[in-house]
Structures are given as C-alpha cells and as structure tokens.
Specification:
The complex is a heterodimer.
Chain A: E1 2-5, E2 10-13, H1 14-31, H2 36-45, H3 50-74, H4 80-107, H5 110-143, E3 164-167, E4 172-175, H6 177-193, H7 198-208, H8 213-238, H9 244-267, H10 270-293, E5 300-304
Antiparallel strand pairs in A: 1-2, 3-4
Helix pairs in contact in A: 1-3, 1-9, 2-3, 3-8, 3-9, 4-6, 4-8, 5-10, 6-7, 7-8
Chain B: H1 2-16, E1 19-25, E2 29-32, E3 39-49, E4 59-66, E5 69-80, E6 83-96, E7 99-103, H2 107-110, H3 113-119, H4 123-126, H5 139-152, E8 156-159, E9 164-166, E10 170-177, E11 184-194, E12 197-210, H6 212-223, H7 225-251
Parallel strand pairs in B: 2-12, 7-8
Antiparallel strand pairs in B: 1-3, 3-10, 4-7, 4-11, 5-6, 9-10, 11-12
Helix pairs in contact in B: 6-7
Classes of the chains: A mainly alpha, B alpha+beta.
C-alpha cells in the first residue's frame, strides 16, 4: 500500500515504513540506544530527502525512547537524578553544537564532517566495546559456573572531584562534573550528527562513570527523549522538515519493536548485549567508511537549490 | 544571418498556415491525497484545417508535460586524500521537476534544431543553465549528469512514437504522472509540425494540489511550525505510552 508523504513529497510503501520503524524500535528497546544512527541512513536509502530524514528520525526516536523508558521504569532501572545531570550538560553541549553546525555548513563541507564524525566515533566506541565485552565473555566462560566476584566499579581520579552527589539507583557517590561533561559532549555530537547519542552515552556510563549495566539502558533512554524532542522542535521551526505522516508510520512500527526489544534484553546477559551493540555500531561505521573510500557509481548528485 | 532566418520562416510559413490544433485533457486537476499513487492523463486533440491536407512532408505531433521548475545544485565528487567528497558544484537556475516528451515519430526526424531552440522542446532546452561555465570545469558535464540522473529516476522521459496519429487529423497519448509528484501547475504543450517546422502550438495547464490530510499537514507545518512540532512530540509520546500500556495489558 503506497502512501504519499506530505512534507517529503514522495510516495513510499506503508508496510516498508512500519517494518523499518519496527527494526529500529527493537534495537532501541534492546540496547537503550535511540536508533538515530540507523534510522537516518535507512530513510535516505529508501529515497526520503536528507533534511526530512534527519528531522523525522529524531521524532521517531522520541516515541521509541518513551516506550522503552516506561518498561525500564517498571523494573526500577532508571536513575532519574543521573539522567537530569546528563541532560543539563546535554542542553549546553547541544547549544554549542548547533553553532558549530551552522559554521560548518557555511564552510560547505558539512556532509563530509558528519560522515567523518560517524566513522570516527562509531568506529572508536564500537571497537572499545567489542574488545571489552569479548574479554568479559571469555572470562565468564573460563570461570564456568563460578562467577568471579566483581566490584561494581573501580575508583579512579574521577571519584576525587568536588561537588559529590548520591546517585542511589546507580549505587554511586561521585562528583556531578563527569556526568555533566559527558552529557555536554553527547549533546554536542548529537547536534552535529543528528542522533540521540545513546551509542556514546551507554558505553560512557558503563566505562567512565562505572554505572551498573542494569540502569544504563533506562537512564540513557530517559536522556535521549529530551535531546531528540528538542531537536524535533528545532527542525520543525527552522526548516519545516518534520513529516508527521512518515513519523506516524515509523512510530507505529517502532513502539511495538521497542516493547519486544526491551523484553528480549532481559533474557540476555549484559556482556552479550554489549557485544551485540558493539557489532552493530561497528557495522554502521564500516558501511559509512566504505562509502567514503570506494568510488561511487554516480559521481554527480542533484540537490534542490535555494532561490537566489 | 538572423534576418535571413526570419525571411526564410516568413516564406515557409504561409504554405502550412491553414492547419491549427484543437485539444482536450481527460482532467485538468490532480489531487494528491494520502493514497495517491500516480495519475494517468489522457491528452487528445485534432488538427483543424480549411483546405485539404497539403502534400509532401507528413504531419507530426509532439506533446510535452512540464512540472514546476526549481533551482538546483549539481555536485561532483572527487577523490581527495583517498576520500570521495563533493568538490565542485554548478547551480542551475531552473530545471523542471518533471518533464515528459511524447512524439508521433522519432524526434530527430520531425524536429529541426532551430525549432527546438525556439520552442524549448528537448530536455537540454528546458534546463535553464546560463553562465555556468565560470562555476566549474567541464560545466556541460554537470548538466548532462542532471539529465542522466533524472532520466534514470523517471522524472524525465522521452517517449517517441507514443502519440497515436490517425489520418493526419486525430491524435491522442497517455502521460503517466508519477507517485512522487511535486505540487504546482503542470504545463502541457502540444505542437504540430511538418518537415521539422512547427505549424501551431497550444498550451494547457494541469493543477496538481495536495488535498485532505496532506493539505492540512503541509499548511500546518508551514504556518504554525511551533504548534506542528509540539503536536509531533505529543503524538510520539502518546504512541510510546500506548504501546507500552497495550503490551502490559496483553501480558497480564
């Protein structure tokens, strides 16, 4: 069944859109990532104009994140206090990011800049997570039934900073500065790359803050709701590129996918979950790197210009 | 040179002056609704004459349908330090979003170069790219690429021999408008020709408009952007909550 999208001005099969939303929602519920780094390339691939793909992708991520966070809240796996600290940093970072984005656009190489950021950050984080979780998996297998006693986190210089605060849900008593800084850098990157930033946030919370994996997914989703909500409104006002019809179909698929994903995630071990996310992140990074390195079939591209 | 051409035309003109077109369209309005899946338009007509059809060169018909024009930027990727990135670009002042040419015989046989220049019939003639040679090296390559890309996308079409011409008098053709149509006025032009020369032309308009929900959403997005953004978010929030609630209900 073909459906005409009023803002994108293209006609696309409605079931294809439901399916895409479902897949991305599933991953979102499972890993606690918004899925922005997947939905935008996928929409571009099926012929949605870039501006509409970025803005509408953000809108879809809001819905799947809300759906996912509700499941996590039932399991008391959301650290709201940590989420708010991250968010405060996130808005500052995103504000700076928007300025840099405008500056890069004026220089005329924003596409390249975005693609390089994707390759760099996805590649780096994917590789780090893959290596760490692989080691954890091997260790768990060698130990057999006897699970090694693991401290919740290791004390480093991070824990010596001032402005300490209790994060009960995470079982942490640390300074608010590191989470605020992480939130800010994620906000900055999400403004530039057009993503919620979950794929950066999840490993940062695990490895830098030492938060237990159990609360990481819910807390990440909680922060993503607000960042992508802010992005959606900004795009709707500045460029009128949010396509509600497209968003509706993606959301319908996405919310169902997110529910299933959140339930599947409870059946998997934390290490398995992390290694799967690492593989996914590395695959996307590899694909974008290939696009940059291989000679494209068509060297020319046509984009609508502005009236002079 | 120019004067000689005008003289030639003046001399050639009167020979065929007694032939004119009468035309009709199956519809002059297309409404884009949510389930819009393209639309087929029947264009038909007849040749009116006050004397018997002249001998010699046979009559030919060309019909063009042209969507609203927009400026475009054409970019070319080049390899820099192992990475393919957009290096040079050319801005085209106006190129139609859709362009279809239907003819009753192969184009090169029925249309002369000068008449093409005068009436802008073939694809390179409807792409307005003036003064692009300063913008990049090999600027014509960019315009050729635009034509190639849009032909591949089926936005531009050359359909030779698809106008059925009966007894040099009645003609008809079907033009399929694609599903991903841009809003605006679509210009239909009809030409009758003999020996490469245009005898008469006529122009019709097809109004393509969004309707219903499509119209409402489009207007809202442009007139009340903040409200539109907030509604999008509320929809997302409600959908997210509803799915979560529905799954809980199913499980319990």
């Amino acid at each position: 069944m073909q459906i005409y999208l009023p803002i994108a001005e293209v006609s696309i099969n409605a079931f294809l859109l439901l399916g895409l939303g479902g897949i991305v929602g599933f991953l979102s519920g499972m890993f606690g990532v918004g899925g922005g780094f997947l939905i935008t390339p996928l929409l571009l691939f099926i012929g949605v104009p870039p501006g509409v793909a970025v803005a509408t992708g953000a809108n879809q991520v809001v819905a799947s994140s809300i759906s996912g966070v509700l499941v996590q809240m039932k399991r008391k796996a959301v650290d709201f206090r940590m989420g708010l600290v991250l968010l405060a940093g996130g808005f500052i970072g995103s504000f700076i990011g928007v300025q840099v984005f405008a500056w890069m656009t004026a220089l005329g190489q924003i596409d390249l800049f975005v693609q390089l950021s994707y390759v760099l950050f996805l590649g780096l984080i994917g590789a780090m997570m893959f290596q760490e979780s692989l080691r954890a998996l091997i260790r768990a297998r060698r130990a057999g039934a006897a699970i090694p006693v693991r401290r919740s986190h290791i004390h480093t210089w991070v824990h010596g900073l001032p402005l300490k605060m209790k994060f009960r849900a995470s079982g942490l008593y640390i300074s608010v500065l590191p989470p605020a800084a992480i939130g800010a850098s994620v906000g900055f990157l999400s403004a530039i790359m057009g993503v919620g930033g979950g794929f950066i946030l999840v490993p940062a919370m695990i490895y830098l803050l030492g938060m237990p994996t159990r609360v990481v997914v819910g807390t990440s989703l909680f922060q993503i709701i607000f960042v992508t909500g802010f992005t959606t409104i900004m795009h709707a006002i500045n460029s009128q590129t949010v396509d509600m019809m497209l968003a509706f179909l993606l959301i319908m698929g996405g919310v169902v996918g997110a529910q299933i994903g959140a339930r599947v995630s409870t059946k998997l071990k934390a290490e398995q979950l992390r290694i799967l996310l690492a593989i996914l992140v590395l695959t996307v990074s590899f694909k974008i790197a290939l696009d940059l390195l291989l000679q494209p079939a068509e060297l020319f591209s046509v984009t609508p210009g502005l009236l002079p | 040179m120019m004067r000689a051409l005008i003289l030639l035309l003046a001399l050639a003109g009167p020979v065929y002056a007694n032939e004119a077109i009468v035309t009709g369209l199956s519809q002059n309005r297309v409404q884009i609704t949510a389930n819009f899946d393209g639309s087929e338009i029947l264009i038909y007509g007849a040749v009116k004459r006050d004397a018997p059809a002249p001998q010699g060169a046979p009559l030919a018909v060309i019909i063009t349908v042209e969507g609203p024009s927009t400026p475009l930027i054409i970019r070319r990727k080049e390899r820099v330090a192992g990475i393919w990135l957009n290096r040079s670009s050319v801005t085209v002042d106006a190129a139609p979003s859709f362009y279809a040419v239907a003819t009753s015989a192969p184009l090169e046989r029925i249309l002369s170069g000068t008449e093409d220049l005068r009436h802008h019939i073939t694809i390179p003639q409807v792409i307005r790219a003036v003064g692009i040679s300063d913008e990049a090296e090999n600027a014509p390559d960019f315009v050729a690429a635009l034509e190639r890309i849009r032909l591949d996308e089926n936005r531009y079409r050359i359909a030779e021999n698809t106008v059925q011409l009966v007894e040099e008098t009645l003609f008809r053709t079907d033009v399929a408008l694609p599903a991903n149509l841009t809003e605006g006025n679509y210009k239909v032009r009809l030409f009758i020709l003999r020996g490469g020369v245009v005898l008469d032309t006529q122009e019709r308009l097809i109004g393509v408009r969004k309707a219903g929900l499509e119209r409402f959403l489009f207007n809202l997005a442009h007139q009340q952007p903040l409200l539109y953004g907030v509604i999008s978010l509320v929809m997302a929030a409600v959908a997210g909550w509803a799915a979560s609630a529905a799954f809980r209900f199913v499980r319990s």
